[in-house]
Amino acid sequence: MNVPLGRPRLLDRLSNQRLILIGCSVFLGLLFLAALAAPWLAPHDPYLVNLAVKLQEPSWTYPLGTDHLGRCTLSRLLHGARVSLGFAVLIFASSLLIGLLIGTLAGYIGGWVDQLLMRFCDGVMAFPSLILVLGLVGIFGPGLKQVIVALMLVQWVYYARMFRGLIMTLKEKNFIAAARVNGSSHWKIFRTHLLPNILPPLLVIGTLEMGWAIMDISAMSFLGLGVQSPGAEWGAMIHEGKSYIRTNPELMIYPGLLIMLVIASFNLLGESLSERFGVTKQTK
Amino acid sequence: MSLLQLEHVSHRYGNQRFLARQAEQTVLQDVSLTLEAGTCLGLLGRSGAGKSTLGRILLGLERPKAGRVLFNGQDIYDAASKDFRKDIQVVFQDSFAAVNPKLTAGQIIAEPLTNFLGLSPDALDERLGGLMTQVGLSKTDLTKYPNQFSGGQLQRICIARAIATNPKLIILDEAVSSLDMVNKALILDLLRNLKETLGLAYVFITHDVQAAQALSDRFMILDQGQLVGDYPTLRSFSEATDEHVQAIRQAVLAIHPRDRTIRK
């Protein structure tokens, strides 16, 4: 009898991984494209109120039906993707940049600079981030701009911590000492020696954190703190739909499903990237 | 004027933390030495003796807490320009940690060249090719990445990088210690040739007596941060029988098992 060797299983696993990688990338790519092209793709104006057609079943005119004000659900979802994805990217990118800057400074310079910056981070991290964001929004007042600033202010500390650790490990390597001996400026050392070596973990954490950013924005809008009422955004749509949960649950299900799929895709993508690069997972 | 002069160099470690203060530890205490151009100083010591810290201080990477480091009569920590960096280079023990894994051999060796000399692309190419021949590698190796080399080959890349700017002094920080016997002999040969053809001075930091004897003109022993032995010639070192020399000799296993003694 032939004993199956390890080889086919390994191949299976590899192709599975590749499938996840490609599948998630394609899904997210299409979604981003749809978000970009929303004004042309959407069949109706997402803000056009028409009470005559409220709470309709899916039809050829309204592919996913209408909400309680007769607005086209599909159009609102497409326009909502612009807000959810766009601002998630904004929050993610800005907090990543701040975190990279602060973390690199702390890790590279060390000494009291490091101590000072890290104690500040400790202070911020001592609070659950959601509470801190809610507190900040409470101070600034509700609104998309305020939520984004609040999320940014809270998120960067986690990145700073992570980059500090990565930079500190790298800094001890002799090739950094050799670069200094070879007359490279600090900026050149950062560009050619530090950055390329933290890029793989950066990519992995980036994809994992994108999911969180989308979650955060939607959560804030759902609580009525982010995007305000007529605005089309997934979290805000769930918020508006929740009064009709008995009669028209699909008003909540469509945006909820989208949020779930997007976050799951980002997480799966991050996982498979981390396995590909051999980066160990860092949990928040 | 001596090429390199250390005057009463002392160094301590111990981070001053933001709120707490850690106990300080003395690593080097009142170390003074001089080195003439074109000679090799074997700096021996057991692990933890402060050898590598001394190396970092000589390279201008770590300002000592006390004392002066004079290169060509000028204090490298007070110099306005970093010109001395061109003249003092380094070869480390672990060659894989001493090169950026994301760069090719050519990019690694080109780093000091572009920083110090500003050559045209053609001149840079020619210089890189010349350096590779000098260290016994081929020009085609320039496009390879560090993980495509063996430890001995990569150490040659590191040596090429060190000699790229025609320095006057190279710090060899355990440069042959993690190589096998054959590679060790080959690299030592290469270093000896380079010393003669380029007129280089070395500070050869090692715990390996045999390697030190193969290359050095003068020997010093560092123990717990202090210079405890100074032997101006190979002969005086190999014939010395004091406790420090014996302690150093025992720090490395003899090549043949027959000559090994079991230490208590």
Automatic annotation (TrEMBL), chain A:
Gene3D superfamilies reported for this sequence: MetI-like
Q: Which residues cross the membrane?
A: 20-42, 85-108, 120-140, 146-163, 194-215, 251-269
- Annotated membrane topology: Multi-pass membrane protein
Predominant location category: membrane
Localization in the cell = Cell membrane
List, in alphabetical order, the Gene Ontology terms for molecular function in this entry: nickel cation transmembrane transporter activity
Tell whether Membrane is among the UniProt keywords. Answer: yes
Record-linked InterPro entries: ABC_transport_permease (IPR053385), BP-dependent_transpt_permease (IPR050366), MetI-like (IPR000515), MetI-like_sf (IPR035906), Nickel_NikC (IPR014157), OppC_N (IPR025966)
**Membrane listed as a keyword:** yes
Q: Name one Pfam family in it.
A: OppC_N
Q: Which keywords accompany this UniProt record? A: Cell membrane, Membrane, Transmembrane, Transmembrane helix, Transport
Per the record, the coiled-coil ranges are: none
ABC transmembrane type-1 domain: from which residue to which, for each copy?
85-270
Give a GO cellular-component term: plasma membrane
Q: Which SUPFAM superfamilies match?
A: MetI-like (SSF161098)
Query: Entry's NCBIfam families?
Result: nickel_nikC, Opp2C
Family note = Belongs to the binding-protein-dependent transport system permease family. OppBC subfamily.
Protein known as? Nickel ABC transporter, permease subunit NikC
Q: What is the native source organism of this protein?
A: Exiguobacterium sibiricum (strain DSM 17290 / CCUG 55495 / CIP 109462 / JCM 13490 / 255-15)
Automatic annotation (TrEMBL), chain B:
> What is any one GO biological process for this UniProt entry?
transmembrane transport
Keywords, alphabetical? ATP-binding, Nucleotide-binding, Transport
Q: Highest taxon of the source?
A: Bacteria
Decide whether keyword ATP-binding is in the record: yes
What protein is this chain from? Answer: ABC transporter related
Transport found in the keyword field = yes
ABC transporter domain span: 4-249
Coiled-coil annotated spans: none
Q: Which PANTHER family match?
A: TRANSPORT ATP-BINDING PROTEIN (PTHR43776)
CDD domains linked: ABC_NikE_OppD_transporters (cd03257)
Any one Gene Ontology molecular-function term assigned to this protein's record: ATP binding
**Stored InterPro entries:** AAA+_ATPase, ABC_transp_ATP-bind, ABC_transporter-like_ATP-bd, ABC_transporter-like_CS, P-loop_NTPase
